[in-house]
Amino acid sequence: MVLQQQNAREDLSKCLIALGSNLSNEIGASVKIVEAAIDDLSSIGLFPVEISRFFRTPAFPAGAGPDFVNAVVYCETALGAEAVLEALHKVEQRLGRTRDKRWEARVIDLDLIDFAGQVLPDIATFSQWRDLPIKLQMERAPGRIILPHPRIQDRLFVLIPLRDVAPDWRHPVSGATLDQLINAFGEKDVAQIVPYNDGDGAGAG
Fold first, then answer.
1. CA distance linking residue 2 with residue 153, whole number of Å
2. What integer pLDDT is reported at residue 8 of this predicted model?
3. Would you call 151 exposed, middle or buried from its count of C-beta atoms within 10 A (0-12, 13-18, 19+)?
4. 43 found inside a domain
5. Residue 174's domain spans which residues?
6. For residue 47, pLDDT beyond 50
7. Is 201 a member of any domain?
8. What is the percent of the chain with per-residue pLDDT over 90, rounded to a whole number?
């Protein structure tokens, strides 16, 4: 029986989900919404193995809204990458996510940042979205799944909680370690990503 359970576990794919919120809803403030989203993961076939600490992070771009509550969850799943992304969008919708414009304040954001180290749909398409100028990043969203998430190396609010759950993770394309990616930022930027404490006021808007 133990062997069967181990074999079943080996059949599952490993994926990393980034979560963020900086608006409240009927569930409560952002921390409650992120907790609710994590609770929802198993209902869509994503089984959390490790959950990072929650972090308080400034909204991006600066002044775009209240501070965020961010976290990363390491999951195992029998689903494929596209099915995982579709399921995450359903959780967002259930929790009240709207998509009126890019990088707006949001009730919840769930991003698939890595799926079994896969590069999808291909290296050329990934590279195109990774290298997109910032102005176009704010205007365009890919119409298909791109893995790893093309912005992960730019987002300390993902990299720092990711270190909690997968400290040995390497970028599937560049091969860079988490420490290398984080150390590419200045100390001032790193210092802005702090563990969330009740009463911080993040996502209270």
1. 39
2. 45
3. middle
4. yes
5. 2-195
6. yes
7. no
8. 69
Residue 38 belongs to some domain of the structure: yes
Helices (H), 43-177: 81-94, 123-130, 134-137, 156-165
Q: Strand, helix or coil at 106?
A: coil
In a domain? residue 200: no
Look up the pTM and report it: 0.87
Residue 116 belongs to a domain with what CATH number?
Answer: 3.30.70.560
54 close to 200: Cβ distance less than 8 angstroms: no
Which pLDDT score is estimated for 141? 76
Domain count, the chain: 1
| Residue 192 near residue 54 (C-beta atoms within 8 A) | no
Residue with tokens 């949001």: 106
If pLDDT is split at 50, 70 and 90, which confidence band does 66 have?
confident
Q: Is the pLDDT of residue 91 over 50?
A: yes
